[in-house]
Specification:
This protein is mostly helical. 70% of the residues lie in helices and 0% in strands.
Length: 227
């Protein structure tokens, strides 16, 4: 506990000096990962120091742009994607061994209603889509798996939140993919459910990278630092 406190205080001091020296340009997107590497400190003390700096009015945190800092790096997104493949693939498999729960059935009904409409509300579809993912994990009956998923959601900010940049076309595709996963769960076909979840996540990940690609050009010379 003492060591953790010292690291947090050291991170605060180092970051405060960087901010007040003007080394960080106003509104410059920053990566928690890059700051952690730069300061040779763990990401937890860096995260806590950033929150303290924001509370002190020395910088502004934009939650919709990243975890606790400005932007997430492409490496962060790839790591989170791999975790999602493992966790959500297992959730789909286990849920299919048990069959759908009532909340999952309700989500499927809402998705069918959305799919049938001529005009699609992207925000509504994404909200129901996330409810479907939540319901799928809870349909597994595996508390540890649910907790792992909740932890990932809590720690990963934008990487696991709805994206306003999603097109109507991509959203319709996602609705269809969710219904395909549900059909496998309903048929109690674990292998099909898992495979369809993997395909859905891979499609969603590619769409996310495409939507975020503009950030590379928004900050020229930054390489793959932002996402």
């Amino acid at each position: 506990m003492v060591t953790h406190s010292l690291e947090r205080d050291r991170a605060y001091s180092l970051l405060r000096d960087l901010v007040t020296s003007g080394e960080f340009a106003p509104d410059e997107p920053l990566s928690e990962r890059s700051l952690s590497t730069r300061l040779a400190l763990g990401r937890t003390p860096v995260r806590e120091a950033l929150k303290a700096l924001a509370k002190d009015g020395l910088l502004t945190i934009h939650p919709m742009r990243g975890t606790f800092v400005r932007q997430m790096s492409f490496d962060d997104l790839h790591e989170i994607h791999e975790l999602r493949l493992a966790l959500e693939g297992m959730a789909a498999y286990l849920a299919a061994t048990r069959g759908p729960t009532e909340p999952l059935r309700n989500c499927a009904e809402e998705l069918r209603s959305i799919e049938a409409r001529t005009t699609l509300d992207v925000e509504e579809a994404q909200q129901v889509g996330w409810a479907f993912h939540d319901g799928l994990f809870r349909a597994t009956g595996n508390g540890r798996l649910v907790q792992s998923y909740d932890n990932l959601r809590a720690q990963s900010g934008l990487a696991l939140q709805k994206m306003r940049q999603y097109s109507t076309e991509r959203t319709r595709q996602a609705v269809s993919e969710h219904l395909d996963i549900y059909a496998a769960v309903e048929a109690q076909d674990p292998d099909a459910a898992q495979q369809r979840m993997w395909r859905h996540l891979s499609s969603a990940f590619e769409a996310r990278l495409t939507a975020l690609g503009a950030i590379r050009t928004q900050y020229p010379g930054q390489g793959d630092r932002h996402a």
